[in-house]
Amino acid sequence: MTTGIITALGTASSNRWGRATWLGLIALALLLAAPFTGVYTEFVLHALCLALFASAFNLLFGFGGLLSFGHVAFFGSGAYTTAYALKVWGVTPEVGIVLGMLAATALGLVFGALAIRRQGIYFAMITLALAQLLYFLFVQAPFAGAEDGIQDVTRGRLFGLFDLDHPLAIYYVVVAICLGGLAVVQRVVQSPFGHVLEAIRENEARAISLGYRVNSYKLGVFTLSAALAGLAGSAKVLVLQLATLADVSWHLSGEVILMTLIGGVGTLAGPVIGAFVLVGLDTSLAESGIASGMVQGALFIACVLVLRRGIWGFFADRLERARTRH
Amino acid sequence: MSERIETGADLLVVENLKAWYGDSRALQRIDLRVRSGQIATLVGRNGAGKTTTLRAIMGLVAREGSIRFQGRELVGLLPDAIARCGIAYCPEERGIFPGLTTEENLMLPPVLRPGGMSTAEVYSLFPNLHERRRSMGTRLSGGEQQMLAIGRILRIGAQLLLLDEPTEGLAPIIVEQIGVAIQALKARGFTILLVEQNLDFAQEISDAFWMIEDGQVVDQMDRTGVVDEAALSQFRKHLSL
Amino acid sequence: MIEILGVSSQALWGQLLIGLINGAFYALLSLGLAIIFGLLNIVNFAHGAQYMVGAFCAWIALNWFGVNYWVALILAPLVVGALGALMELLLLRRIRDLDHVYGLLLTFGAALLIEGSFRQFFGSAGLPYPMPEQLRGGRDLGFMVLPNYRAWVIVASAVVCLVTWLVIERTKLGAYLRAAMHNPSLLQAFGVRVPRMVTLTYAFGATLAGFGGVMAAPIYQVSPAMGSSTLIVVFAVVVIGGMGSIGGAMVTGFGLGLVEGLAKVFYPPASSTVIFAVMVIVLLLRPAGLFGRVA
After folding, report:
1. Closest among A188, A196, A192, A186 to A216, alpha carbons compared
2. Is the Cβ–Cβ distance between B146 and B73 less than 8 Å?
3. Min distance A272 CA to chain C CA atoms (Å)
4. Which H, E and C letters describe chain C, residue by residue?
5. Pairing of β B208-213 and β B216-222
6. Which residues of C touch A73 (CB under 8 A)?
7. Chains interfacing with B (3 or more CB pairs < 8 Å)
8. Minimal C-alpha gap between C150 and chain B (Å)
9. Which pLDDT tens digit goes with each residue over C66-116?
10. Of A111, A123, B94, B228, whose CB has the highest number of CB atoms within 10 Å?
11. What is the enclosing helix (H) or strand (E) of A309?
12. Mean pLDDT over residues C40-68, rounded?
């Protein structure tokens, strides 16, 4: 699994980019050592959950070419399902997470089937509207606890054995979940399925003429992306022990797009970098009292105008250029 | 090369013109001169760069080099500014706007300069358009659409008309009507730069030919009093290559 | 009193009227979105923010400068339109040749920036805006009491929509606009200053949103979030109607407002979701939208 993670943190091909592999290794080492360095582990875990969420979104947008503006629906449904299952049914954490993922997968199948009926900007608007529909359902549904959401979720014992309230236990479990999710994204991108997706993104008409059932591929990647977003939501519940309306609000859909954009659309490391940057930024903004929307909006504009390849894309270009010069 | 006929001063001078579609270079180097009052024709095979030359003159593609119209440099100007200099463009695909009637299509281009034709004059040149003025422009026959495409740029007040393959896909009788109309336009004082695949048609009406191949001018011929059969057969050979 | 399915006719008419008012805003906003999309090929995510800025302009005009509603109704949309023009010139113009997705992301960023700025300076709480004196009270129509201001909103937006539609369909200016939507470069080759037209069109769409915002100020509270929540519903409206038809956008807007009103009467919990539900049904039965053509 480790090599998978390294390349997931690096980029599509680790053989080609030696330096990226090294960067990935260093990042992994830092991540594993973090609890002993005195950093605020909850911050790392929260950022890691959002990194998985952003990577799931990026699988759909960056590799599948489909811009979902309502990805929060899957993150949120995963979070609420897991929170409810843990708190009300008292299931063990692994069952809670599987249930959360299943809910997100089912929802992804339904939303995806609806959204792929239209293309381009309509796709974005439909996903946004569907997510808003879900938001209003959660506002009203009795089980979702309205404005309070589901709070004080008990983490329980993993497989009935490991008490997740132990700081190191929760840390490594969530790290494992998120890295596992990232590895899945990486494997999918490099699989034949991923190559067909790329062909569809480059030229949909041509992919159709080559005999690919384009809509099945789109629905497939949409559902997979939803499942991983759900996993991220479930993991987030384990970390923060709550699910609230913020987890289904359109703001978070916007943030996940911004993370991907800042880090680098269509790269494996980009969304991870973007998630850490944005969570760090949000944390420091919360202390400064500056409305985060203002800063996020400015970042969006800056990314679109001058940094379309994102931070990672920018450095990857540099690395590539340095390599070709040798 | 044959002897030139003085029809007037150079109206359009193109020098070392290059053009691109995205990253791919469509024109290597185009040099040509169109004299005032002439009908000049660009000939060449499909994909040689004839249409691109017209589009480059009109500012519709990325270009480099020099295009001087009445001494004024056009490279660097936007299409609307070029139109205001006195050039009008009729595209190969005719570009009739859907949702507008024949008359609305005809009246759509703004009158930019004095000296253009009046609507009545356009109708007398193309009586079919008058008959069908209330029909939707896209409902007209191919020949009528071509007349509309030419007719609507006559009101603008341009001196130079860029006509891209006005006879493409039309029946011989319609081609003849278009030919008569183009000659009438010349008689009225318009200078015309034509792109034409139909060499017989072009030979009837043109004063000068420019042969384009792979984005470059490879040959040039002026029409003398007597048609130079040798030069013409040379041209035909180029085309059939 | 007459009752329909256990609902008093008074309540029914009242909710239908509220639905019609919401519909008026949906129509105004989706009209602007459709016009901007038609020419710029951009889904203007900043449309909700522009609507909100319109409302705030009216509030600021009244509270800081003592400028009344009627003056604000003219001035605020112009201010929003000018800001829109500036946005087109400084931002949107730079990404014209890129994938349409970037237009969407850029305007979304602008929306966040604008909304965030107002939250920073005015707080998140709603600010009240008083009804203009001339339009307070209402008249008894026999079957219901019609508040004057609401009647005004419905009539005024219907008139604005209708005039816009007439200008686009029946005038030379509208013919330019329709031609530019179809083939902008050819129109520019005819000597029309298309880039300027693009700026003005975007500004006009923003102006319509700003106008909607001023009209909304006395009905809803003026708050930074008022735009985004409305805009998401308007997106659903636009998916239902399809953006290909200017007239269709207006009809769908008013129609869905009424549907929302009916939901409030017969099953109130569904009122916030009914438009999204209609969108799902339309996607299943007629994927191209009611007025759209299959691509």
Report:
1. A196
2. no
3. 20
4. CCEECCEEHHHHHHHHHHHHHHHHHHHHHHHHHHHHHHHHCCCCCCHHHHHHHHHHHHHHHHHHHCCCHHHHHHHHHHHHHHHHHHHHHHCHHHHCCCCHHHHHHHHHHHHHHHHHHHHHHHCCCCECCCCCHHHCCEEECCCCEEEHHHHHHHHHHHHHHHHHHHHHHHCHHHHHHHHHHHCHHHHHHCCCCHHHHHHHHHHHHHHHHHHHHHHHCCCCCECCCHHHHHHHHHHHHHHHHCCCCHHHHHHHHHHHHHHHHHHHHHCHHHHHCHHHHHHHHHHHHCCCCCCCCCC
5. antiparallel
6. none
7. C
8. 36
9. 889 999 999 999 999 999 999 999 999 998 888 888 888 999 999 999 999
10. A111
11. none
12. 93
Contacts 24+ apart (CB under 8 A), B47-51: B48/B212, B48/B213, B48/B214, B48/B215, B49/B19, B49/B212, B49/B214, B49/B215, B49/B216, B50/B164, B50/B195, B50/B212, B51/B92, B51/B164, B51/B165, B51/B195
CB A134 within 8 A of CB C272: no
Chains B and A touch (3+ CB pairs under 8 A): no
B80–C194 CB contact, under 8 Å = yes
> Which residue of chain B comes nearest to C180, CA vs CA?
B97
What is the value of ipTM here, to two decimals? Answer: 0.88
pLDDT in tens, C199-210: 999 999 999 999
Phi, psi of B40 (to 5 degrees): -110, 140
Beta strands B191-195; B39-43: pairing state: parallel
Under DSSP, the state recorded for A16 is T
Contact residues on chain A for C43, CB-CB shorter than 8 A: 121, 124-125
| Side-chain half-sphere CA neighbours of B66 within 13 A | 12
Q: What is the pLDDT of residues A48-76, one digit of tens each?
A: 999 999 999 999 998 888 899 999 999 99
DSSP A157-225: EETTTEETTSHHHHHHHHHHHHHHHHHHHHHHHHSHHHHHHHHHHH-HHHHHHTT--HHHHHHHHHHHH
Tokens at B58, concatenated:
């009109």
Q: Which two tokens stand for residue C32?
A: 């602007």
Distance, in Å, from the CA atom of B188 to the CA atom of B186, rounded to the nearest integer, reads 5
- Under DSSP, is residue A153 helix (H, G, I), strand (E, B) or coil? coil
Q: What is the pTM of this model?
A: 0.86
CA–CA distances in Å: residue C145 to residues C1, C13, C24, C138? 14, 9, 19, 6
Strand B160-164 to strand B62-69: parallel, antiparallel, or no bridges (unpaired)?
unpaired
Question: CA A132, A134, A137 angle in degrees (round to 5)?
Answer: 115
With contact defined as beta carbons under 8 Å apart, do C5 and C266 qualify? yes
